[in-house]
Write a structure and sequence with these properties.
alpha/beta; Rossmann fold; six-stranded parallel sheet; single chain; four-stranded parallel sheet; 2 domains; 14% strand
């Protein structure tokens, strides 16, 4: 009851804001917070558009999809959850600074080792940190020409950095960075969760990926993200309970030793990329309401 009361209050506030702002259209991007303004827009006759990042939409967007004029999707599998003909698959928008890093050209690297960028999102991921530490020990022991760049997350940086320093592991740790594009650019492969935006960023750089979906994501949507991305040959994915350092290192070693296989996976990743997704979404929406020239052909 409390949640419903807050929703009703939120819709009332949204009516007031929309009345003052008088927007030509409203975009919803999912989540509980987007519902009041999206419902108010629909009830006010203001064109409503949605952007769905994941292969499996959340509850908010599933409900709002019946009201939206169009749904812009990051994954092809999303269309099955919305009314027929209402979904346009355009990919997920990527931050301007990340696109800029990709456009800046080839990065000059001082390290000739096969470099793997491992990350678990802005907060890091305990499971991925542990796997990288395990693989770092194996690589050191077996004297492989592989190195890791590890985004630990702020909470685990100190402990990970201490272990890496004391054991002399071939791992470069850091807690978080806003210049993630530069790290993608100097890496050969990526190990990460299967968040929609992380996949969009890695694919922008044409990097083959090993994906370990977050096992507790709603509706296991990260597994669906991973499955669709990897279906085209852009990498491999495995459930967290199946992911071992030995298994992951085997895949990385294959990519490191066979440039043809690695290049094919990188090309598949690049094909998944949609660097102009934001522009296409805006131009398409403006065209829908008669204020633009339409989305560019790709």
């Amino acid at each position: 009851m409390l949640g419903m009361a807050r929703m009703v209050k939120g819709i009332a506030v949204a009516f007031s804001v929309l009345g003052r702002r008088r927007p030509d259209l409203v975009f919803g991007v999912g989540g509980y917070a987007s519902v009041p303004v999206s419902v108010a827009a629909w009830m006010s006759g203001i064109p409503l558009f949605l952007q769905e990042q994941n292969a499996v939409p959340g509850r908010a967007n599933r409900m709002l999809g019946r009201m939206a004029r169009k749904v812009y999707a990051g994954f092809g599998g999303t269309a099955a959850y919305f009314p027929a003909g209402r979904t346009e698959v355009v990919g997920n928008p990527v931050r301007r600074e990340v696109v800029g890093a990709r456009k800046s050209g080839t990065v000059v690297r001082s390290d000739s080792r096969f470099t793997v960028f491992a990350l678990g999102g802005s907060q890091g991921a305990q499971a991925i940190n542990a796997l990288v530490l395990e693989m770092g020990r194996r690589v050191k022991e077996e004297r492989r020409s592989i190195a890791f760049v590890l985004q630990t997350g702020a909470g685990e940086f100190e402990s990970a950095e201490t272990i890496i320093r004391e054991e002399g592991l071939p791992i470069e740790p850091f807690p978080f960075t806003d210049r993630i594009g530069e790290i993608f650019a100097r890496s050969d492969a990526v190990l990460m969760r299967a968040g929609a935006l992380s996949i969009a960023e890695a694919s922008l750089f044409g990097k083959p990926c090993i994906l370990i979906p977050y096992p507790y994501a709603a509706d296991r949507h990260q597994e669906k993200n991973a499955r669709e991305f990897c279906a085209g040959g852009a990498g491999v994915w495995m459930r967290q309970e199946e992911a071992t350092g030995k298994r992951i290192l085997s895949t990385l070693a294959a990519w490191a030793s066979d440039t043809g296989v690695r290049a094919a996976a990188g090309e598949a990743a690049a094909r998944f990329s949609r660097p102009d997704a934001a522009e296409r979404i805006i131009r398409s929406a403006l065209c829908e309401i008669g204020k633009g020239q339409g989305a560019p052909h790709v």
